[in-house]
Amino acid sequence: MTEHRNRTENISPKITASQWRAAWSLFPYVWQYKGRLFAAFGLLLSAKLANVSVPLVLKEIVDHLQNPGTALLLPLAFIVLYGTLRFGNTAFTELRDALFARVLQRAMRGVIFDVFRHLHAQSLRFHLERRTGGLAVEIERGARSIRFLINFSLFNIAPTLLEILMVAGILFAKYSPWFGAITLMTLVVYIFFTVLVTNWRLQHRRAMNQTDADANAHAVDSLLNYETVKYFNNEAFEAERLNRDLKRAENAAVQSEISLAWLNAGQASIIACGVTAMMALAAQGVSDKTMTIGDLVLVNAYLIQLFIPLNFLGTVYREIRNALTDMEKLFGLLRRPPEIQDAPDAKPLQVGHGEVRFENVHFAYDERREILHGIDFVIPAGKKLAVVGSSGAGKSTLSRLLFRFYDVSGGRILLDGQDIRQVSQSSLRAAIGMVPQDTVLFNDTLYYNLAYGRPEASRDEVLEAARAAHLDRFIAQLPDGYDTLVGERGLKLSGGEKQRVAIARAILKNPPILVFDEATSSLDSATEKAIQAELARISENRTTLVIAHRLSTIVDANEILVLEAGRIVERGQHAQLLAANGRYAEMWRLQQKAGHEAVPAC
Question: Within this chain, do residues 271 and 373 fall inside the same structural domain, yes or no?
Fold first, then answer.
């Protein structure tokens, strides 16, 4: 709790440079529709002119009705003008909103689209270090803040200030300078007080946002790991952890509301003083015969027109500061450069035969602990290379480096003689098919998840891929068939079924290079044999990297590497490695023994 409090109390109450950058970042999204923007400002100005003219017409109506000798036609004309101006103010405002709606929605769409693409461009390390729930809250809040900032900064603050200046000018010109002076003085004091107090209470707003994001992140994390919670009977533990987060959020929200109450009270007292002074001056003018009853009505009407929106202006300013706070993180995401980027002169990968070469590759997730130490191997075009070893030896790291989820710390990886750091990432990944050990599916239909391997594929091609992965019989037994929803992260399917979906995706993608990372680890023996036959078929004439735990699945590999602690300790074909009687032979004997023990006695 102390750590959280220190994090929020050290925040500067002033608008930071990053907040100004966030606000300025919206400009290009709005300016591309400058035609609509100028038209909307024209309608806004027309609405304000109509609104400011209403009290002037109202004064004439009252003064003419006070004079018994006035013809009835003249007050009626002013009454018609009064109604026209009232309607004009509303009509111009509604037309402005209708015209600007397209600009607002497209600007929001553009920002969210860019953020979404930028997040997908980020490295794997970025996503492993982020909490999905917290990130979702930041994006949702940022999107909401964009709508508010664009709408209210353009069409509420500036127009209200313009109206106040116009009214102050009219009061200066028509009456005692004190009327205009009091109006401007009230405006200055009000704005100064609002800015000062709003900046002070910003720390409470940020604390509320942070604690709310923490609570959401913990809740989403817990629900995503529903089965783990159940396995360890930790429902009460998770509920208590969430309750602690909610208590912190509750305290921060209460402090924010208390500071808001102080702000509202101060604003109300400033407006009350200004209104009282103005009405006192107007009443004195009527008493001294220097002003008419119509003048008193005019001053009162202007007070109503000014101070109601002025009170709203205080709310808008507070919300804009809050919006800037919420947008800061959203645009901070956009400004964060991806760890893995295409080289400035990156060209598309030219895939010929599909040879893969690792040359003296070193790599570390953390520079203090190296994972791979000078890895050298070649997968000739159309051949199969298998990598085996104990957990943590660095096997899966090889596939991540090949996909360029990370860049090597030393050495290089070549594909058909091209350094993968010098080609575009999209062309590199288009050339590689992956069947991962842990298959995560989208919360959509089975068909959608199968077609994800190649979204433009025809339905017949998708069904053929499902048959090749031995999924067709399973799907035929489902009430909804290919339209069956697989649930969050594919939890409605078994591990083996999810892996067969992954295999079908790879078949559908039809790439020249294949990577199998424990591709059959979740399958039973019978299914594994059937899938292995299919994998062998689709691997023919393709360059294939197999990361395996079950040695029985890679006996046909052209070369097998044994990896230990990030180093290649043995290499050769299956028979050669058994004859060498080294680490591979030891692993083989242990697995064969475990397999025999697993068979029940007759």
Answer: no
